[in-house]
Amino acid sequence: MQGLRFAFGPFVLDPEAGTLLRGDVPVSVGYRGLRLLETLVRRPGEILGKAELMDAAWPDTAVEEGNLTVQIAQLRKLLGVTGDGGEGGDGWIATVPRVGYRFTGSVQELSGVKHRSLALPERPSIAVLPFDSVGNDPEQESFADGLTEDLITDLSRNAGLFVIARNSAFAYKGKVADGRTIAGELGVRTLLTGSARRAAGRVRINAQLIDAASGEHLWADRFDRGLGDIFAVQDEVTARIVHALLGRLGASPRKRPNNLEAYDFCVRARRLMDDTPQAAREAHLMLTRAVSLDPNYAEAYRWLAMNHWMGWVHSGGPTDSSRGIALELARRGVDLDPDDAGCRWVLAYLLAYERSFAEADAEFAKAIEIDPNEADAWAALSDVTVLAGRVDEGLEHIRKAFRLNPFPANWYHLVLGQAQYAAAEYEAAVETLTRDETYRTSSRRFLAASLAQLGRLDEARAEGELFLVGNPDFTINHWAATEPFRHAATLEHFVDGFRKAGLPE
Questions:
Q1: Would 259-363 and 373-505 be classified into the same CATH topology?
Q2: In CATH terms, is domain 125-246 a member of 3.40.50.10070?
Q3: What is the pTM of this model?
C-alpha cells in the first residue's frame, strides 16, 4: 500500500517496507528501533516524551524505561554522527534531560513513492474492487460488499483465471488510488469496478471491466432488475467477465441461497469472522438465524463451523462438544453443496485436528481442484502440511496464499512464521512475526521460540510471558497433544523452542 518514505543525510527510511537504507545498502535495525526512528523522523525538531516513544515501540505493553534507553543508544550507534545530525554529541537523536528525545536532523518526505509491484501471473488476472454503495446507509454498504465478495468467489472458481482474494481487494475500500497503481500492487492485469444499490424491491448495478495498463474498458453494463434476480445478475456478470478474459464460458453457477434474509445475515457475519470474541458471538447469532431461515444454505453452515473454530481459538482450545459441533456443521455444508471449495477446506482443516488425515488430505485436494484461487485453502493447507513434516511444501503453499492475497488476514502471518520456524529460518520468522498485522495475536509463541533458537533468550522469555497473559491456560504438553502433528521430529523442534523460551510444560 502507499506510504511516505523519509530521507535524512545518507539515509532513507521506508516504514511500510520496514527498511532503512544508507545509500543503497540496507542497515540492520530491529523492529523496535524502526518504530522509534519512524516516530522521531515524522516530527523532526519536536521533543517527544519517553511515554509516547515507548507506546510507539511497545504498543499495549508495559516495559521498563531502560528498554527505551537501550534502543536509542543502538540507533545512535547505527546512524553515527553525520552531517547536520551532530548536535550535542548525540548524533541524530538528542536527549532532553528528564523529558525525552528530539530528532535533530533535516527530514525530507519523499514524493513519488515507489510502490511494490508484483509480477503478472501467466493466467489472465483480475481483482474485483469493492463496489460503491449509494448514500451512507449501512444496509446499502453491506449489500454492495456482499455483491463484491460473491463476484470474487464466482470468478475464482474458474481455473483459467487468477483472482485476488477478498481481504486484499477490500484493502482498497474507501481509498483513493489510480487503477494502474492498484493493479501493480496486486499483480493483476484487469480490474472490475462498479456500484450497487438496492431499493423498493429492485437492484441497480453498474459494472466495468478495465485493462489497468491501458485504461481501456473491456466491458461495461448496467443492470436494473427485481431483487429476486440478484443472483441471476451475479451469474450474468461473472459469465460476461469470463468470456471477456478467456473467450469462453466459465464454471457452472454456484448453488444459491433460497432466502434473501438468510443471505443478508450471512453477508454481515462474514465481516466479523476475523475480529474480536465479541464480534464472533454476534456472527454466531447471525449465522444461526441464517440456517434457521434457510436450512439448505451451505455457505452459512461453513461459516458457522468456522465460527465455532474461532471460539476455540479465543477460549484457549477446543472442547469435545465444540469440536463435534463444528465438524458436524462442516460436513453438513459439504453435503448440501459438494462444489463449494470453502466448505471443503473448512471440513478438511477440522478433520486434520481429528487426526482423520487421509480424509482431510482428500478434502483439501478437492477444494483446490474446485477453486485453485481459494487463498484461505492454501494457507490452511500450509499449516497442516508443515505439521506433517513436509516443510518445504508448506512454505510453497503459504507463499501461494500470499500471492493470491497480498494483504491477508493476520493469521496468514502466523502460518508463515510457523513454517519459517519449522524450516529453521529463525531470522525470517522473527521478521514475519513482529509485523503489526500479527504481533498482537497468539503467534507470539512462535516468535518466542524463534528468538530462543537465535540465543536471544531475554527477548524470547519476554515474548513468552506476554503470550501467556492472553493465553494463561497454555501448556506445551496440551498444545503438542492437540495440534495435528504427523512428524515426530517436527513436533520435537517446536517443543524445544517453547522450552527454551520458558513456556510451561
A1: yes
A2: yes
A3: 0.77
